Amino acid sequence: MKKTIIFFVSGVIIFAAGGLVGFYLAIRGIDFGFSAQPNEDRAAQEDATITREGFSITLPKGWKEVQPPAGVSLMAANSGEEIKDENLKKINFKSYYTVIYDNLQGRTLKEYVDYIKEMTTQYTPGLKFVSEEETAINDKEGYRLEAEVTQQGADFKVVILLVPGQNEDIWSLSMSTGVDDWEKKEEFFSDLAKTFKTE
Q1: CB of 4 within 8 A of CB of 144?
Q2: CATH number where 120 lies
Q3: 2 by DSSP, 3-state: which?
Q4: Distance between CA atoms of 129 and 144, rounded to whole angstroms?
Q5: What is the CA radius of gyration of the chain?
Q6: C-beta separation of 179 from 157 below 8 A
Q7: Domain boundaries, position 20
Q8: What is the pLDDT of residue 110?
Q9: pLDDT value at position 182?
Q10: Residue 180 pairs with which residues in a beta bridge?
Q11: How does residue 141 score in pLDDT terms, banded at 50, 70 and 90?
Q12: pLDDT tens digits for range 49-62
């Protein structure tokens, strides 16, 4: 059976001293063990609200929760997605979404944004941030980052929403998809983010 490879464009680095968790973008193939067939039985047949420690989010029909890498609170992929870009097809890419928890550790939101940008560009040569802005996310002051990177001949778009939680909690909601597909998925990502709730 053909397996789907998701190129992980969002993740975590755990620094042993103090347990600091930070983000990096590193393109690496991960086989999550689900079929690329559009009618995958294990994919959600209707919208499903998923609750984890500290948050909940509603995944839309066709998206499937997959085993996340260490440090990632939730990861879901569009297992039924039909990819048209030939370069993305070659690597069996599927769009995916992650939720990651972190702590500001005394930083302001702007300082945390600068930290994220420094870490991601350090670990992904060629990554370029093409847009960033302050934004309201479910009535909370947040921040939105867009980045693009080309790996293995494929052009990726990575969009990150930083959502403050209680005290110094900070949540990162990110989506990775093909650059050419982003325009038609931007509204979807925005609607998905609106379902994200913290405890």
Answers
A1: no
A2: 3.40.1000.10
A3: coil
A4: 11
A5: 16
A6: yes
A7: 3-198
A8: 92
A9: 87
A10: none
A11: confident
A12: 889 989 999 988 88
Confidence of residue 7 (pLDDT cuts 50, 70, 90): very low
Q: How confident is the model at residue 18 (pLDDT cuts 50, 70, 90)?
A: very low
For residue 176, give both structure tokens: 């990775």
**Continuous segment of H or E residues that includes residue 6:** strand 3-7
* The two three-digit tokens of residue 120, written as one number: 């991601």
User: Can you tell me the mean pLDDT for 79-84?
Assistant: 81
User: CA triplet 38, 41, 42: central angle to 5 degrees?
Assistant: 105
Domains in the chain, number: 1
CB burial of residue 130 (10 Å; 0-12, 13-18, 19+): exposed
Q: Where are the beta strands (DSSP E) in 48-188?
A: 48-52, 55-59, 63-66, 74-78, 96-103, 128-137, 140-151, 154-164, 169-178
Q: Is the entire prediction scored with pTM above 0.85?
A: no
Residues 60, 80: Cα–Cα separation, whole Å: 12
Which structure tokens are listed for 140? 């909370």
Six token digits for residue 178: 């093909």
Show the tokens assigned to 44: 């959600």
What residues pair up with 40 in beta bridges, in sequence order? none
Phi, psi of 109 (to 5 degrees): -60, -45
- Residue whose entry in the numeric block shows the structure tokens 């650059």: 179
